[in-house]
Amino acid sequence: MNTFKVLLSRSVMVWLMLFVIQAYAFTHIEDAIETESLRITLKENNTGFIQGKICDECKLLTVAITAETRAIHNNTEVALKHAAARVGKSATVFINTEHTKVTRIVW
């Protein structure tokens, strides 16, 4: 009977550890700004920033555009300058919430 209790307690510990590891693996690190009027500033070196809100009640965010930022139009990657040409038009801006950087701009 004592062996059964030891095995049971070790099983429970293993399951708890797996649950914690799995929960950590699914940490939320990306969010989106859906905008009807894109506010973007882009320099010649493809860096800059976008301003927007994740929700109507949320505060205004300023998020960095880096060399890793991608622009996607109709499921095809295009140059960032095409995204900059969309000032005032609709787009979805995906941001890495850990590093406050734009990962991609989609329209």
Protein described:
The protein has 107 residues and is of the alpha+beta class. Helices cover 27% and strands 36% of the residues. It has one domain. The chain has helices spanning 2-25, 80-84; strands at residues 30-35, 39-42, 48-52, 61-65, 70-73, 76-78, 91-96, 101-106. The protein has a 5-stranded mixed sheet. Strands 2-3-4 form a 3-stranded antiparallel sheet. Strand 2 and strand 3 form a beta hairpin. The longest helix is centred in the N-terminal third of the chain and has 24 residues, at 2-25.
List keywords for this structure.
single chain, alpha+beta, 2 helices, 107 residues, three-stranded antiparallel sheet, five-stranded mixed sheet
Number of alpha- plus pi-helical segments? 2
Number of domains: 1
What overall geometry do the principal axes of the alpha carbons give? elongated
Q: Average pLDDT, to the nearest integer? A: 86
Provide the succession of SSEs.
Answer: HEEEEEEHEE
What profile does the largest beta sheet have? 5 strands, mixed
C-alpha termini separation: 64 Å
| Helix proportion range | 25-40%
Structural class designation: alpha+beta
Computed over alpha carbons, the radius of gyration is 21 Å
Beta-strand portion reads 35-45%
Q: Please tally the β strands and state the result.
A: 8
Low-confidence stretches: none
The order of strands across the largest sheet is 1-7-8-5-6
Summarize the structure.
The protein is an alpha+beta fold and 107 residues long. Helices cover 27% and strands 36% of the residues.
List the topology elements.
Elements: H1 2-25, E1 30-35, E2 39-42, E3 48-52, E4 61-65, E5 70-73, E6 76-78, H2 80-84, E7 91-96, E8 101-106
Parallel strand pairs: 5-8
Antiparallel strand pairs: 1-7, 2-3, 3-4, 5-6, 7-8
